[in-house]
Structure formats: C-alpha cells, structure tokens
Amino acid sequence: MKRNYVLIWIGIVCASFVFKGCTPVLMQKTENKNVPEKYNNVQDTTNTSEVSWTKFFTDTRLIELIDVALQNNQELNITLQEIIIAGNEVQAKKGEYLPFVNLKMGAGAEKVGEYTRLGAVEKNLDIKSDKEFPEPLPDYLISANVSWEVDIWKKLRNAKKAAALRYLSTIEGKNFVVTKLIAEIASSYYELMALDNMLTTIKKYIEIQKNALEVVKLQKQAAKATELAVRKFEAEVLKNQSYQYNIEQKIIETENRINFLAGRFPQSIQRNSQGYNDLTPGTLYAGIPSQLLSNRPDVKQAELELEAAKLDVKVARAKFYPSLDIVAGIGYEAFNPKFLLNTPESMLYNLAGELTMPLINRRAIKAAYYNANAKQIQAVYNYERTVLNAYIEVVNKVSKISNLGKNYDRKEKQVQALTQSIVLADKLFKSARADYLEVLMTQRDALEAKMELIETKAQQMYAMVNVYQALGGGWK
Question: Where does the signal sequence lie (predicted)?
Fold first, then answer.
C-alpha cells in the first residue's frame, strides 16, 4: 500500500514538470504604484478626508437629508445586495475544496432472465435456507458517499481567495457609492439655495424695471420720452419674468432630484437660503498623494480587483496540471429489509483515486488562460488609470477652490459698483440727463453680475464638496 502511494506521488510530480513545461508563456505586466510625493510643492499629511461627513457639513438640514438618503437610496441598497451576493460566492468557492459527503437511500426491484448468468445464480443460490431468491429480486440500499478533489496546485484555494478579494471589492464599491451619493446630495442642496437667491434677485429687478416702466410712461405723456422707450422697458420686464419661470422650474427639478436620491416621492426640501451669501468653504487639507491609495474607495476597489485577477491567472494555469480525485463510500445493501443491517454480510464500501491530466485538445483550457491573463492586464491599466484620475481630480479641484475665491471677490466688487450705478442712472434719467438705453443697460449689467455672483458662490460650494469627495471623504 505504501509503495502504491509513493508511485502515485512520483507520477504526480513528474507530470507536473511535464505540464508546467507545456504551459503557454504569456506577456506579463506589473502595475505602477508610484505617485508624486506632494501636491503643488505642499507636503502636509493633514487630510480633510479623515473628517466624518457629519462634521464636515454644518447645515443640520443637509445632514438630515444625507442621513435619509443613506438609508433609502435605491442604488446604495442594490450595492448592499451585491455585497451579500459576493459573500455567498466566497462560501461557494470555499466549499469546492472541501470534501463532498452525500447520504444515499434507495429501494428497487429487478427481474433477470432465468437463462442468464445472474438468473442461474439466483436459481441455485440460497441464503442459509432452502428457499430460492425472491422473484423479482428487491434491492434496498443506504450509504454515505464522499468525493474530494485534492487541491494539489491550490487551484480551488486561489479561486476562493479571488472570490474573497472580490467580496472586499464590492464593499469598496459600496463606499464609493456612499461618497458619490453624499456629494450629489450636498451639491444639489447648495444649487437649490443658489436658485432661491436667483429667484429673489430676479423678482427684485423685475420690480425695479416695472417702476422704471411707469416713469417712462409718464415721461411719454409729458412728451419727454418716446413709444420706443416704453416698448424697450416692457420687453425687458417680460424677458425677466420669463427668466423667473425658468428658475422656478429648475427649483422644482432640483428638489425632486434630491428627493430621488433620498429614495422618496416629491416633497418640499427644507432649507434656509437667506444666509447663502455668507457661506464660505471651510479650510481643506489635501494631505499627500500616497494617501489616495488608502482613502479613495475606487482606488482600493481597483487594487482588489487587480489582486483577484492575478489569482484568476493562477487558477487558469493550474488547469493544465493533473488533478487528483478521491471517492469513497460505505453503506448497506440487501434484497430483504431484515438483512439490510447485517454486519458484515450486507456491508459494502469502496475507495478509489483518480488522476486526470489534460493531454489532447486543450484549446478550451488555453483560451481560458489567455482570457485570464488579458483580464489581469486590463486590471493593471484600470488600476493605474484610477490612481492617475484620482490625483488629477485633487489637483484640479484644489486649484479651482483658490481661483473661485479670487473670482468671487472681484465679482462682489463688480456687483457693488453696478448696484450704485443703477441709483445714479435712475436719478440722471429722471432729470433727463441720461437716456433710457443707459438705464436699461445698467440694470441689465447689474442683474447679470448679481446672477454671476450667486453662481460663483455655488461653484465655490460645489468645489468644496468635490474636493472632499476627491480626497476620499464621506464613507468612513
């Protein structure tokens, strides 16, 4: 018996060398994990992504919205189910390299021809009595069967490890969905506040233009203005009223976008837009680029997918090598139930080992191996692309915050100057020292500047949210 085992293992070892030599040689690619040491010559490990979203945002209404969304958002809940599915895949792969044990019970009957070999045996043989075999001959069976593929080349264990890595990858995918969801809710919330302020501004300017229109009508009656001036002011009022309705529609759509993200039917979004102009992005710390590798869920997800793809290549390569299957069984079988449990007369057992090696027509195995290697190379490129995108996102968005701050300061001064010019133009127009076109252009310029100022403030808040997301904040 020992000699047989030795021969089997010698055969396996020899076959492994033979089939390893027959394994196709494929192009290999190793991922580049190097990133720049710092952003824009600033090297500070303080990182805003470490701050919880409940502390990063200070508006209690916004925090409540995000909390509702994290519970009800359908996309997030779908992702949570994907995590459960991936966890079940891990258990399935784990079970593949453990022995399979099946319990078998059965009953049947068989009638064989009297002039056959079995028939002749049954006719002349008895079991401790003078009676012949019953006809037809019943058969009763109860047994336990074991089958086990010995994982010589770690094919099954590597498949389990790959499934475990993909399970962890789905968790990182969920974290990425969380960061994205929080950023979308916050950006939409700030957009809603900006639209509220735009609506208030446009209503104020419509009132100013209506008053100017009444003045022009009076001047026309006094022969100090023409019908052209009246029509111009009327057109300007109508244009801004149309603009007002567009803003009101955008407010409805933005509210419903937030409601959709929160997983609920349309309802009013509670917010305080009066303090919008006082909003300022908090101080943000980008840290160092290497922190992206652990803070960004999409980077971690790409890394886990890459490690799983490497294991897939090993699994595919192992299919070129011999596989050893062991089967065994033990049980009882008899033609009469009263003999079924007689030991050892009714006992049966078996033990067998089977060594299987692919020899001819290995095209399917080669194709699977080539595909696994190609997917591993894809995973390398995807990982490098994700890291590069993360770094560029941080650089762009941090720079944008700085430039938007300077832009807002200039816009604010422009609005102040144009607001004063409206008062001056109105006085000059009433004293006939300025024509209606100067008044119209001054009002139009002031309105556009005010709207641009509100939009710039919104862009500042978006940039703050985007930097937080780009750094990997929100999921912790």
Answer: none
